[in-house]
Amino acid sequence: MAERYYYSIASGSTGNCGLYVAGGAAILIDLGVSLRKITAALTAVGLGLDDLSAVLLTHEHIDHVKGLPMFLKKAGAPVFASRGTAEALAQKEPLCRDRLNVFESGEAFWVRDVDVETFETPHDAADSVGYILSHGESRFGFATDLGFVPRDVADRLRGCGTVVLESNHDPHMLQAGPYPYPLKMRVAGPAGHLSNPDCAAFAADLVKNGTRTLILAHLSEKNNIPELAFQQTRAALRGLPACAVHIAPRERMEEPVLFGEEEACSLSG
Ligand SMILES: [Zn+2]
Ligand SMILES: [Zn+2]
């Protein structure tokens, strides 16, 4: 495990799970798909459940914790959650009561040689968070499920070489799409999800501040098209230093995204 990479296992409204590997640690972020899918994806990169160093949960919505009960039964890796997330989960799943490692949002800790910073995200969950994972000089930021990018979140993500950022919906598709009106309001609101234009604008800010690999994530199945999300962010990056832009597909990525790769911008799954 000398290499450093991020491997998206599932992304979008039906399930979210990603694997971060660096510094001898293998860390899953969220468990929003079945344990079977997670195990199959780990096998594809030569890992098993026993190789996992930790799991970091962002919040208690089902698309982020669907595989949690089975994971707690079958796997031994410690699972970290913010206090509010852990309390919300314990109400539904008794196994969570003593199996979760609880932190306060904003607190930092470490997993092997990886430093973990946590930060609050604006989302309609009990106590949702994003993460910065650092190993040596390499900083990796993770922010999905946020209605907007607050200043303190922006400050933390700036300077991360690699960022997984939500590009949830196209505002016109959302408006014209099949969601009932209250749900449209929720998704577009300040405690909902980041739109393609908001993602693109912040992506430009990140690239000006050193980000060289972007992974657009949590794309809506009904209110977005991968090419649209990709083109919107690429257009915002025109004239800026080179940055690889990847889309996290609904199912697992074909190949992990290696950190620090200076590759030409291209659409890849
Ligand atoms: Zn959510
Ligand atoms: Zn979500």
Automatic annotation (TrEMBL):
Entry-linked SMART domains: Lactamase_B
InterPro entries: Metallo-B-lactamas, RibonucZ/Hydroxyglut_hydro, WalJ/YycJ-like
Domain of life (superkingdom): Bacteria
Record SUPFAM superfamilies: Metallo-hydrolase/oxidoreductase
Domain Metallo-beta-lactamase: 14-193
Pfam families reported in the protein's UniProt record: Lactamase_B_2
Protein name: MBL fold metallo-hydrolase
